[in-house]
Amino acid sequence: MNFHAAKAFILDKLERELSHKLYYHGVHHTLDVLYTIEELCYLEKVTPYEELLLKTAALFHDSGFIINNKEHERLSCQIARENLPGYGYTSAEIGRICGMIMATRIPQSPQNYLETLLCDADLDYLGRDDFYDIGSTLFEELKAYDVLQSKEAWNRVQVNFLEKHSFFTQTNKRRRAPKKQQYLEELKEVVAAYEKN
After folding, report:
1. Fold of the domain spanning 3-196
2. Domain limits of the chain?
3. DSSP character for 79?
4. 42, 115, 151, 194: which is deepest, by most CB within 10 A?
């Protein structure tokens, strides 16, 4: 596995080919998930080999947005399958990487430990200090793609999403879940105020 060459390839591809309307799903999100995976691997004591698989999955997990913003996980796997053999990844390794990528599809459905790690890294911001800042970029992206337009609709979506979401790893249950719960309570108050008007 030539991880560094695969990383250079996919980051260059993302930089050149992702739409500028992807205010949330840009290269910055991919790098955020990569750095979070490195943190989680350290905190969860993941083996170096499995960490490389996870980091590769993190780098490729949203690459499908290059092709289309619908079914992007499946398209991300297609890009991984087409390109990773050229960097020395075996079909078994690519299969595991694609399992991790598919697990991030909402609602998240991890089937094994490594998949839970990528899922938690992908939505790590839900329990971080930059929750509102990052959330606003997702709102801008959804507006740009005509998914929703109003702040009220966005806040309702966020409440619904946070209520259904849960972290999988012990690390993120401990370090992210409490703050995520706080944001949910804050947003519920905002949404409750709409009912009064």
Report:
1. Hypothetical protein af1432 (1.10.3210)
2. 3-196
3. H
4. 115
